[in-house]
Amino acid sequence: MNKKRLVDEFCKLVSIDAPSFHEGKMAEILKTYLIDLGFEVYEDNANEHYNSECGNIYGYLKGTMEGEPLLFSAHMDTVGPAIGKKAIVKEDGRIESDGTTVLGADDLSGVVAILEALRTIRENGTEHRSIEVFFTIAEELYLKGSFVADYSRFHAKEAYVLDLTGPVGTAAYIAPTVMRVEAKIHGKAAHAGFEPEKGINSIVIAANAISKLELGWIDEETTANMGIIEGGLATNIVPEWCTAVGETRSSNHQKALAQVDKMKQIFMDAAKTYGGTCEISVVDGGQAYEVDKNHNVIKRFKQVCDELKIDVNLIKTFGGSDNNNFYSHGITGIVIACGMNKVHSTGEYTTVDELVRITDIVEKLMTSRR
After folding, report:
1. pLDDT of 285 above 90
2. Global pTM value
3. For labelling, which of 31, 50, 153, 293 has a CA lying 20 to 30 Å from the CA of 241?
């Protein structure tokens, strides 16, 4: 491994603006890299579904040794504030932004680990399994890129998704179903001073519904939240429209579905009570999964970490990732920590040592005979 190249590559990619649906420049660079590394490269039509700048980037490299192919995935998009990012490397090896944007280690730490592992394998002439790489768009928007991927193209049945916080060596083998619920409430506008009795207050409907929702921990496997409420035009107008947006998560898929049904019914009942109407849409953010700890995808990961003397910590996560969609299409994977910390904040950081460790893990996975 070339540590300097790894860090320089991370800093270079961080400087590329790639908010969700605007990953075009990042995609072009990654396609070029994969082609140079000998991959067959394909860009799918995810952009046509979302009118985005590009599709997901898929690459396949035929192995030089026996073994089933493995899939390595990371996403190209970055949450905001993400325009004008700059990586600052401190003397102690900590890498952070200038404090006005996120750093983008989520998920560029995963991207550069995959790239550097591949370069090291090629330069050393190391035998490797058949390798699939998948760089997705709009992961941060409820996994939209991987949701519309062309899974008929995939060969691998096992995956390592580099998209988890925590010390390198951490891996999530359980993840939840995540579902976004949006209620668009229609009341009736009226002048709030002269004839409020002629209006139907959509915000009141939303408030009534939200007051009846059970939020927070529903049980040990399930949470629910309302995070956005928008509506109204002026203080002297009875608001005709109001939108309330929330979500539910559960490591039990059926419980998530049941919670969504409860939320929908409460909003519909509130609208009916006040004489309004309600349109509800649900966005699927991925289905829950649990990987057997005896599955080879976990045993291989543990073996590699043991060889590198990296402590392994298998965890349950309440965050979604592209791995949820892979699972739904018959690919068994785990999500592995890749050196991202304090993600989704301007305090996000990684370290040189963590980038090195995750690259070592990826290289050994790609060359594992297990």
Report:
1. no
2. 0.92
3. 50
